[in-house]
Amino acid sequence: MWTQAGQQTFKLIVEYDGSAFHGWQRQKTGRTVQETIEKALCVMTREKITVIGSGRTDAGVHALGQVAGFKTRSRLDAQAFFKGLNSLLPGDVVVRACDSMPSTFHARFDVLTKRYRYHILNRTIPPAIGRQFIWHIRKPLDTEAMIEAAGTLLGTHDFKAFEGTGSPRDHTVRTVTDSTLTKTGGGNLTYDIEADGFLRFMVRNMVGTLVAVGLGKLSASDVHSILKSKDRAQAGATAPPQGLFLIDVTYR
Known about the structure:
Strand content: 25-35%
Low-confidence stretches: none
Shape: globular
Mean pLDDT: 95
CATH architecture of the largest domain: 2-Layer Sandwich
Number of helices: 5
CATH topology of the largest domain: Alpha-Beta Plaits
Number of domains: 2
CATH class of the largest domain: Alpha Beta
């Protein structure tokens, strides 16, 4: 769709392996997903284009359904951008879809919910394959206690106790609509969480706290108390980034 300024607006759905990236957001130093896509768009359009993501992902975090938007004066259509970007991007970034959008679309401000998934492998032997996509924990975990604890995080709460330092936000209240730990066999556990927004390191701090419950360091009722305390020092350690995936982003 064309605006009065002669621009088109596009939405990208992006998949990436975050192992070799310093996160999504462009930085002064370090390879980032945002800058990698912007450089490919510059090659295609000869324009300096800013790509706006639905939100940041930290260094080492992956995505299956990150959403990003950009505007351009180019006359290329969505299919041309889809094919062109995938021919220019490195192997650890793939555009899964490209769609033309109304000029009012904003990849960040129009977000309704986001869904993340965290992968844990709980067994004595570490994996050789896929080790960059899981948190390997050797000690046995009490998964039933973790499942109970995960349920206490549902609802609208002040999640300050699970916020990392340096989080840019107006407030720390979020609504969590799904918080589910699932055993998938072979020592594999997945934690799914969906919410209307996330604080910095919020999911990883939640996972670290659930693992503390699984190791017997905390109880499920402790997690509820930690949530009410708004005190980060009472929660568990921050889980490593490699097990975390941004799965999906929904829009209004």
